[in-house]
Amino acid sequence: MLGAAAFSSSSSTAATTVSTAHAAHTLNTIRHVFHRNTLTSPSPSPSNHSIVCGRFHFLWLRSCNAFPTKAMADSQTLAVPKHNPQSSAPGNKQALISLSDKKDLTFLGTGLQELGYTIVSTGGTASALENAGVSVTKVEQLTCFPEMLDGRVKTLHPNIHGGILARRDQKHHMEALNRHGIGTFDVVVVNLYPFYDKVTSAEGIDFEDSIENIDIGGPAMIRAAAKNHKDVLVVVDSQDYPALLDFLKGSQDDKQFRRKLAWKAFEHVASYDSAVSEWLWKQTVGDKFPPNLTVPLSLKSSLRYGENPHQKAAFYVDKSLSEVNAGGIATAIQHHGKEMSYNNYLDADAAWNCVSEFRNPTCVIVKHTNPCGVASRNDILEAYRLAVKADPVSAFGGIVAFNIEVDEALAKEIREFRSPTDGETRMFYEIVVAPKYTEKGLEILRGKSKTLRILEAKKNEKGKLSLRQVGGGWLAQDSDDLTPQDIQFNVVSENNPQDSELRDAEFAWLCVKHVKSNAIVIAKDNRLLGMGSGQPNRLESLRIALRKAGDGVKGAALASDAFFPFGNYYLKKCLHFNVVKIIFHIYIS
Length: 589
Fold this sequence. Notes:
By secondary structure, the protein is α/β, with parallel strands linked by helices. The chain contains 22 helices and 19 strands. Helix content is 41%, strand content 16%.
């Protein structure tokens, strides 16, 4: 009926003008009454609030009926009398706070209130502030609309976004706010529904609950405030609360501070959206290689330099959903020692990836990302000694990794073991990495050197996405998770290998998997005897491996990461040294 009345008017132009002016006057009066009854009262009662809102909606509908069709279409050009509600009066500063994570909320609310800010807030945030003794204006007192659709709609309203987005240096923006009775916001503090935590929780969450944890109003407010950062300070991180309050106490503006907060806000929303996108892709297609891929990275530390001293560097942690609780060096705990360097991370990653592949107690020593010593034994002390003996010169200054706990006995061995080259020099290492340490083991290792980095890491989960950068792009592939237990070895010689010989072949195959470029590994009795790598031709790698293996090569297994070119020559070379088993880690070009 009301709608019909609004569109069936046949009044004259004069009557239209009178009706329009009357409606504008009525609406302006409504706003005056509404603001006087809501915004000027520090804590309006719920009953009073509902009565005022009820009258507002009723009178608003009635006033709308006074507008003929043409007048409604031209309503933006009406000369509405100026209106200055208290919320937008000179000197009245407003802060909008809506938080899922309410850490340090009391500190923030109290600080803003002491600085003279009127705090506008939503739902649980408003309740928490009130419980802390902070005066709050609830959002619905500005919008005259309750939360609806199970909380999906709270702040998506012109009275909120108009106050955030209006440019203070644009006269027509301020006139529009004044005409509609909208106050400005000077500070917006928002963080988002915990979507990331919910979808990665150990308890799990179903599809519908995950959808409900996708924030809509929060990102809209954050983006609006960040866009208008010249006039609005936007904060998404509780760690920035002290800096925000200090800034507001000052008398001078700082464009860089505002821009940094705006950057952080956009980055916060972008990371949030990337998590939603990654999760939703897996719920639909699930292919590992989507048409578009976003990898959210979070700065963990600035590094002294990169691969070379003249290169600046930093270390980032991958915050993709697929990496949550998935292990790896990036999430390792450093218990002791000098800060990690660029090359330290590369070497530690190589050592940890290699040692984690072995089922039996194993020690791996890496130098320049290549394993130079590997040994598996039930007695981890013996495994450690044998790993060092494979190449004591390369092992010195390397990274030593274990796939079992480092206890007091092993820690003492690491601290006291002398180099086999002279029997006197204590072995020196840059890093020790293991899945865990006993208290006594840690204490002993800390005493070895002030600079020794002691890392505690979790084994990498299988099925990860492996990325590698090339100029202007990235290569993506499945992680190489194959182990000897996953493949079928084919015997192509007349003699079938004995069980011990097959175990040597499997051990060599697993080692050569982690050696780089034209890789050759010679192994026997679950220990690496010699390896060659990084050579332009495989023959040179073979020569290096044979020389390092020395007399132990007799009866050993040899593994190559690809077929031998000019096979007869290589085979004769191996047979000359009595290598009895040759296995190829298949490579297809």
